[in-house]
Design a protein that fits this description.
By secondary structure, the chain is α/β, with parallel strands linked by helices. The protein has nine helices and ten strands. The protein has a six-stranded mixed sheet, sandwiched between helices. The longest helix has 37 residues. About 3% of the residues have low confidence.
Length: 258
């Protein structure tokens, strides 16, 4: 068990606030949009663990800061990524920095046993699978969805995107999305079923809070066990395929430097 006071100000990449059991996690870098980095990777992995262990959290809202959810987009040259394919990496480094942490990042999110709502406030060009694993996914009209950092940026798409996007989009659409670096606008994401509602930016957080209050009307165990039930198949898939995907990603990254 954890207590909110022990972790609410602990992570430099996550600003947290909680009101009457509704926890908001605002991802950011220095008060602006989240710039994906090793620090952000570490912060989210640990923050999700703390949130999931605090029974004072009754509903969780995930969102970004400013006009972007998470970036920067990685260019096809591979520049700008936190996994730089041009930088030498050993198997030991991959295991310590990405394999172990990468497995726990998504599993810690899925192990949060209360309903999770995402409010995608703008372009999500890095780790867009994180908000899409929520139970309810809202998007602003300015939001876009892209996996810019993996195949597009010089890496095997093996850290969960290989599970999430083919599952949510359909096998062929998901593979096309990962192999081409396709950018989906908010309406396209809605049409494909990746997000549930699209609205103007100024209505996004109010709508997320409205839904959170509606969910909160249900009894506590009903809320918790519904979340557990609805994430069980996702956790099973991740258990079977996430470690394998990260191993393939790391093997290719190490081999590239030989």
């Amino acid at each position: 068990m954890t207590d909110f006071a022990d972790y609410c100000n602990k992570y430099s990449s996550v600003r947290m606030c909680r009101d009457n059991g509704i926890l908001e996690m605002h991802f950011h870098t220095d008060g602006g949009p989240l710039r994906w980095s090793k620090r952000a990777h570490e912060d989210l992995e640990c923050a999700f663990l703390d949130v999931g262990r605090d029974r004072g959290n009754e509903v969780v809202i995930l969102t970004g800061t400013g006009d972007e959810y998470a970036g920067p987009a990685v260019q096809p040259s591979g520049q700008g990524g936190h996994h730089n394919p041009r930088k030498p990496v050993t198997a030991k480094e991959w295991d310590e920095l990405w394999y172990w942490e990468g497995k726990h990042l998504l599993m810690n999110l899925l192990n949060i046993e209360v309903p999770v709502i995402s409010a995608i406030n703008g372009p999500a060009t890095r780790h867009a699978e994180i908000p899409l694993l929520s139970d309810i996914v809202l998007a602003s009209e300015t939001a876009t969805i892209q996996d810019s950092a993996h195949f597009n940026g010089g890496l095997v798409p093996g850290d969960g995107v290989h599970v999430v996007f083919p599952l949510l989009m359909g096998m062929n659409r998901g593979r096309y999305f990962l192999l081409t670096g396709q950018v989906l606008n908010a309406q396209e994401a809605l049409n494909l079923g990746l997000v549930n509602e699209v609205m103007p930016s100024d209505q996004l957080l109010p709508r997320a809070r409205e839904l959170a209050h509606h969910i909160q009307l249900r009894p506590p165990l009903m809320r918790r066990y519904t979340r557990v039930m609805l994430t069980q198949d996702l956790k099973r898939r991740m258990h079977d395929l996430l470690g394998y995907g990260l191993a393939m990603e790391g093997l290719a990254a190490v081999q590239k430097m030989d």
